[in-house]
Amino acid sequence: MAGSYDTRTLVYDTAIIGGGPAGSTAAARLAQRGHRVLLLEKEQFPRFHIGESLLPCTMPLFEELGVAAELTRFLPKHAAEFVTADGALSRRYAFADGIVPGPTSAYEVDRAEFDSVLLNNAARSGAEVRQGVEVTKLSFDRADRVEIDLRGGDQVAARMVIDASGQGSLIASRRGLREMDHGLKNFAVFSHFEGARRAQGRREGDISVVLVPEGWWWVIPLRNDRTSVGLVGPARKLAGRKPDAAYFEERIANTPYLRERLANARRVAPVRTISDYSYVSRSFAGDRWLLVGDAAAFIDPVFSTGVHLGTSGAFRAADAVDRALARGDLGRGAFREYERWLRRTVGTYRDFVHGWYQPEFAEVMMHPSDRLELRQAVTSLLAGHGTEQFGVAWRIFVFRAVTRANKRWALTPRLAGRRDSTALEG
Ligand code: FAD
After folding, report:
1. Apex CA 144: angle with CA 312 and CA 128, to 5°?
2. Ligand 1 atom nearest to 296, measured from its CA
3. Is the pTM of this model over 0.90?
């Protein structure tokens, strides 16, 4: 399809800004429905990106997109494990134990390669994909199209724009729509290792989340003996320190569980730092525009929800745009249902993440009750079943009530000492 139009006069049905998981998914889906789609990506793929642990709930979407077979090259992930800094206490949430039937595994992926699979699929599905092209400005002055300025002076036009530009969130930041979550102002510092100790068999791909006074670590085994290791914590815990390579190495040395897993490992990538400040856009759509993925909202990475929210949101967004294009009405009203769904889903995970940064919440996570199938419901939430299922929603409500009560009544053993929990308060 690419190259068969005169792009100076062509008005695309939809232009998509950004070729990450959200943008590529929306592009593929709309192109598969026969729309003329232009995807503009400022980088050349493959490019590095953080966010390597996927959720089971996303797997059927990859099937529908037609990329499931290409993903089998990655390391299967069957569970998430939470473990104390001394390694003495751990709790494994195996996705097979969830109360919602469905896929019980996902993958741990190298994002450069994974994102390329999705972007190539968008092109194969019929979207025109242009890499190394940065969108610099959008203008909504014309009634029938959005005019899109590209770095270098070119301009293109589309009836509809989907902003999938990730944390840069082009539209939301230009319009002042981003509401920063001051309760989740975190830093992240991370790198890759080779030779790290890992479990064998079905447990090899488990993500480990390690509780430490300064926040939590992820340990994500990837294929080819690579392991992604990163620390996330409230920026205030840095107490003036820079989260640089020296800090990273020092905190590993201070964490017995990591020391042991990385004893024979060597670092094979630079230490990178991101300040991951959570935010939500006040609107997710307007006349002729719509936000997906991180461009709409970014929640803390602790429950690995980013790619799932991006791709599942992109499915819903693309379906809404498909219907709106067919009706010829691209006003905001056409996207209300999408906005409602996204706000509800983001709200559920945000509340759970806020809980996570309270020590008493983590204590309940380490000692979950099987009563009322609360542990099983949390497992389903960790698999990506947000608010869709009533059976999950009410149990999560009860689980949150238990974590709040635990603050007052110590319903579960305290973790202080294993993870200096008082350090996380206030
Ligand atoms: P992105 O993947 O960021 O893609 C946006 C694309 O837009 C980029 O390729 C960018 O180059 C392009 N772009 C930006 N501006 C422009 C422009 N003006 N013109 C053209 N192109 C543009 N998620 C998980 O699911 N699992 C995890 O384990 C996980 N861990 C994380 C750890 C950390 C520390 C952080 C910060 C995030 C983590 N995430 C994780 C979140 C995950 O990385 C994101 O949610 C996910 O990448 C969002 O996808 P997206 O397509 O919305 O945006």
Report:
1. 50
2. 52
3. yes
Residue 312, ligand 1, Cβ within 6 A: no
Average of pLDDT values for 187-211?
97
Distances in Å between the alpha carbon of 300 and those of 22, 232, 352? Answer: 17, 9, 10
Q: Where are the domains of the chain?
A: 11-50+110-179+279-345, 78-107+182-275, 347-424
Classify domain 11-50+110-179+279-345 by CATH number.
Answer: 3.50.50.60
| CATH entry 3.30.9.100 includes domain 78-107+182-275 | yes
Q: With a 6 A CB cut-off, is 30 part of the ligand 1 pocket? A: no
Q: Is 58 in the pocket of ligand 1 (CB under 6 A)?
A: no
**pLDDT digits 0-9 by tens, 56-104:** 999 999 999 999 999 999 999 999 999 999 999 999 999 999 999 889 9
Q: Work out the pLDDT band at 2, boundaries 50, 70, 90.
A: very low
pLDDT at 407 over 80: no
Show contacts of 281-284: CB within 8 Å, 24+ apart: 281/169, 281/172, 281/177, 281/178, 281/179, 282/177, 282/178, 282/179, 283/177, 283/332, 283/339, 284/335, 284/338, 284/339, 284/342, 284/343
